[in-house]
Design goal:
The complex is a heterodimer of chains A (about 120) and B (about 110). Chain A has no helices and eleven strands. With about 120 residues, chain A is mostly beta strands. In chain A, the strands form two sheets. In chain A, strands 2, 4, 5, 6, 9, 10 and 11 form a seven-stranded mixed sheet that branches. A four-stranded antiparallel sheet of chain A has the order 1-3-8-7, with no helix packed on it. The radius of gyration of chain A is 14 Å and the shape is globular. With about 110 residues, chain B is mainly beta. Chain B contains no helices and eleven strands. In chain B, strands 2, 4, 5, 6, 9, 10 and 11 form a seven-stranded mixed sheet that branches. Classes of the chains: A mainly beta (about 120), B mainly beta (about 110). The interface between A and B is medium-sized, with 26 and 28 residues.
Chain lengths: ~120, ~110
């Protein structure tokens, strides 16, 4: 079955970086993109961006431009997201989710059909 | 960017009764191809979100038919015909017409 296994939670200091991983299994890794969504404590969902494991194409929300980097490793079927210059308001659960339609460029209708369990990132001095 | 607004934000419902959640977008999500790029997700307590509906009205595999999505343009509705205890959680609408994709604030459904 399709599964996304996310890395363990991390505690970071303000100004540091964190790299979260998402290992995919159970499907053709390069055929479907991965989306990252975060959820601050007690808050709603926030779309951060998308990456194509086939082409490496990315699409980041403008809010995070310059501060996040999404990459893929096809040999290990793993997607990574690095968030730099961490602030206290980056404290959140970070989810990766497989997109349900194939595509190498972010298009319309890229719903998320399988989600990881989330990685908690805590930013605290 | 497209702003999504849901109402109500809190929805207490008696089991067996219907429930309705509204989602409004700041611009039309109806594309010239006839599709409405509006999805619904449910996040049950302590769990990751799960897809309920995409393209306005297409139920995901395994989603009970008591869930129905409707609407077009800027106004959408998620209806639950008879609420069950397992339906508790936070419901989010999300637009996938254009990047950045965006979610509504969420509607928390609880059992009375």
């Amino acid at each position: 079955q399709v599964e996304l296994l996310q890395s363990r939670g991390e505690v970071k200091k303000p100004g540091a970086s964190v790299k979260v991983s998402c290992k995919a299994s159970g499907y053709t890794f390069t055929s479907y993109g991965i989306t990252w969504v975060r959820q601050a404590p007690g808050q709603g969902l926030e779309w951060m961006g998308w990456i194509s494991p086939y082409s490496g194409n990315t699409n980041y929300a403008e809010k995070f431009q310059g501060r996040i980097t999404m990459t893929t490793d096809t040999s290990s079927t793993t997607v990574y997201m690095e968030v730099g210059s961490l602030r206290s308001d980056d404290t959140a659960v970070y989810y990766c989710a497989k997109v349900g339609v194939p595509g190498t460029i972010l298009g319309r209708g890229f719903y998320m059909d399988v989600w990881g369990k989330g990685t908690t990132v805590t930013v605290s001095s | 960017d497209i702003v999504m607004t849901q109402s109500p934000l809190s929805l207490p419902v008696t089991p067996g009764e219907p429930a309705s959640i509204s989602c409004r977008s700041s611009q039309s999500l109806l594309h010239s191809n006839g599709y409405n790029y509006l999805d619904w997700y449910l996040q049950k307590p302590g769990q990751s979100p799960q897809r309920l509906i995409n393209l306005g009205s297409h139920r995901a595999s395994g989603v009970p038919d008591r869930f129905r999505g409707s609407g077009s343009g800027t106004d959408y509705t998620l209806q639950i015909s008879r609420v069950e205890a397992e339906d508790v959680g936070v419901y989010y609408c999300m637009q996938t017409l254009e990047a950045p994709y965006s979610f509504g604030q969420g509607t928390k459904l609880e059992i009375k």
